[in-house]
Design brief:
The chain has two domains: 28 residues; 83 residues, Immunoglobulin-like. By secondary structure, the chain is α+β, with helices and mostly antiparallel strands. It has a five-stranded mixed sheet, with no helix packed on it. It is built from one helix and nine strands, in the order H-E-E-E-E-E-E-E-E-E.
């Protein structure tokens, strides 16, 4: 292989690898987490639309004066949130569909849903 062909091949490989890594960066979690608040015994928003097929982060903020537990069987997540505190829930790329969540400590709080489209 001539030096020119070797150089051209290396440039081609570099450009392919660079474009692949840029594509992966674009599919990472969103820079700013989406947010769900809990106050007055209800989640807001109660239905949170998210993009399907992309990892994401959701910040759960407890604005109440009681400890809550953000739980979702369909997302396999369960996290306690102290009053006035927040937690971040990291999720892999979701398939299109609806994923329910609730406050396991307070059964009177209506369920919410994360809807991937």
């Amino acid at each position: 292989m001539t030096p020119r062909k070797k150089f051209t091949r290396n440039i081609f490989i570099f450009s392919v690898l660079s474009s692949l890594s840029l594509g992966q960066a674009n599919e990472g979690p969103s820079a700013k987490p989406l947010e769900i608040d809990l106050s007055n015994h209800k989640f807001s928003p109660q239905v949170l639309p998210v993009p399907a097929g992309r990892p994401l982060q959701i910040r759960v903020v407890n604005l109440s004066k009681e400890t809550i537990e953000f739980e979702s069987f369909s997302l396999n997540r369960e996290k306690v949130v102290e009053p006035g505190k927040s937690i971040t829930v990291r999720l892999p790329a979701l398939k299109a569909g609806s994923y329910d969540f609730f406050d396991d400590f307070h059964q009177d709080v209506p369920e919410g849903a994360i809807v991937a489209k």
